[in-house]
Design a protein that fits this description.
Elements (H helix, E strand, L loop, with lengths): L1 E4 L3 H11 L3 E4 L11 H16 L3 E10 L10 H7 L2 H11 L3 E12 L10 H11 L4 H7 L3 E11 L14 E3 L2 E2 L5 H7 L1 H15 L1
Parallel strand pairs: 1-2, 1-3
Antiparallel strand pairs: 3-4, 4-5, 5-6, 6-7
Helix pairs in contact: 1-8, 5-6, 7-8
This protein binds 2'-deoxyinosine 5'-triphosphate.
Keywords: Hydrolase
Pfam families: Ham1p_like
GO molecular function, one term: nucleoside triphosphate diphosphatase activity
Length: 207
């Protein structure tokens, strides 16, 4: 059974469109390392979740990157939402630029313990073999292969509109409509998460 690892029910709702019945949510709060990019955060999370669950794990790390704020809040989007809140982050963005161009990014990291993605790079392989041979749990985790998928959607930050979706959806406008004004299907058709899930589902079905 594939476990979609997140504490966020909004993400699960969107993922169901791509993963149907073969997925169930694992409400597990994996360690989020600090990094400017989402990829290493998601990869580390997927390894930890797989070790925890003992089942194939798919981690979804996402964030809002505002151009005029040099990518802030980016990997810290959840923290900024909890502290400042979606509306104040929106104000910061619009104070910095008008229009306040931004993008949502999503990285999916899949780990099932199999070496499906054995690196062709012998140095990398040797590193993995060495890491797998140690007793150190964190080093062993680094040896687990992870497959990454990502999606991006461009838009602009506006005054909040709409009551659908979650997180920053009310302030993120794409083609004249905020994500909170769209149905889940409409959002999936253009969103960062939809793009990443589409790629994952295609790979997963044919792996
Ligand atoms: O489609 C989206 N529509 C609106 N907001 C979004 C979206 N995608 C990510 N976001 C925001 C929500 C949160 O403030 C942060 C994700 O943070 P992120 O750490 O990936 O997720 P999270 O803490 O909500 O749940 P979890 O880590 O358990 O999956 O970016």
């Amino acid at each position: 059974m594939l476990r979609y690892v997140t504490t966020n029910a909004g993400k699960v709702r969107e993922a169901r469109d791509y993963l149907d019945s073969e997925v169930s949510q694992l409400d597990f709060d994996y360690t989020e390392i600090q990094a400017p990019d989402l990829e290493p955060i998601a990869a580390r999370g997927a390894r930890e979740a797989y070790r925890h669950a003992g089942e194939p794990a798919l981690v979804d790390d996402a964030g809002l990157f505002v151009d005029a704020l040099d990518g802030f809040p980016g990997p810290y989007s959840a923290y900024a939402e909890e502290t400042l809140g979606m509306e104040r982050v929106g104000h910061l963005a619009r104070d910095a630029a008008d229009p306040a161009r931004a993008e949502f990014r999503c990285v999916l990291a899949y780990c099932d313990g199999d070496a499906f993605d054995a690196s062709p790079d012998p140095v990398d392989r040797a590193d993995r073999a060495a890491a797998a041979a140690t007793d150190d749990r964190e080093e062993q985790d680094d040896a687990l292969p992870v497959k990454l998928f990502s999606g991006v959607v461009r838009g602009r930050i506006v005054e909040p509109r709409g009551d659908g979706g979650f997180g920053y959806d009310p302030v993120f406008e794409h083609d004249g409509t905020t994500f909170a004004e769209m149905s889940a299907a409409e959002k999936n058709a253009v969103s960062h998460r939809g793009r990443a899930l589409e790629q994952f589902a295609e790979w997963y079905a044919t792996r």
